[in-house]
């Protein structure tokens, strides 16, 4: 469980976090989304004690990171996959991290195997691609088998197979009852991976929602096609729906659901050739929400 309360972080005159509050429960994959500069990395850095907050608090399992005596066992983080010593081998990199926690070589090899780096375990990181560094960073985050996992832009640099692999791994970690928080600035990368989303902009919470509710909220309208579209349009209007005529004799309807329209047409013996609920894409939803933040300098977080 992660809890962030009224977190504010200033870097000189830049207000990176502005009284940000949220919590991340275990057992699901939570996405932490926001445009570049929204404050995602800052939040993760404060959670793992790399940066101190200006005010407010970030707790992991009820404690500040600094109060956790063997942190790798409780919280694993991938914050910057590039921040590694290029002259070290993958094995050595993990061994250096593991030493303080008495984590042995067999655990290191198991993890390198799990992330697909067993064959290059003794190769220098300097020759690794960004995707390989990401995999190594994920292995480092999982070294102590922690209950809380924080990954900043984990699919950055990964190819399609790598993205699918991260997705599967995150779902497994959540199904084991861990708390999983993944940041990204791209909804398209996260949409299939996360169960729940926290969206931030300008250091404040803009929205918090399950992915299911997010998709529902942005149902747009219903497209209906019928060889008797003029007659059907009149019937639907008389029933209080808003109807406009779209291309190819299509009717665009709001103010009712597909079942009501279908039942009404059947009752009046009007044939229906198409009845489609049209939704915005999640990417549209996300851009709309983050645009609002830009326009209004972020209001209070809304629960969708
Ligand atoms: N060490 C720092 N010194 C000064 N300003 C900083 C520092 N770190 C972050 N900032 C500023 O704080 C704000 C939030 O940055 P942050 O990196 O947390 O955003 P982000 O959401 O992670 O963005 P991105 O998706 O680009 O990584 C930005 O305006 C950034 O320029």
TrEMBL record:
Lineage summary: Bacteria, Bacillati, Actinomycetota, Actinomycetes, Streptosporangiales
Superkingdom classification of source: Bacteria
SMART domains named among the record's database cross-references: AAA
Keywords tagged on the record: ATP-binding, Nucleotide-binding, Transport
Family designation: Belongs to the ABC transporter superfamily.
Keyword Metal-binding: no
PANTHER family from the UniProt entry: ABC TRANSPORTER, ATP-BINDING PROTEIN
Organism expressing this protein natively: Streptosporangium lutulentum
Name of this protein: ABC-2 type transport system ATP-binding protein
One of the Pfam families matching this protein, by short name: ABC_tran
GO molecular function: ATP binding
Coiled-coil annotated spans: none
InterPro entries: AAA+_ATPase, ABC_transporter-like_ATP-bd, ABC_transporter-like_CS, P-loop_NTPase
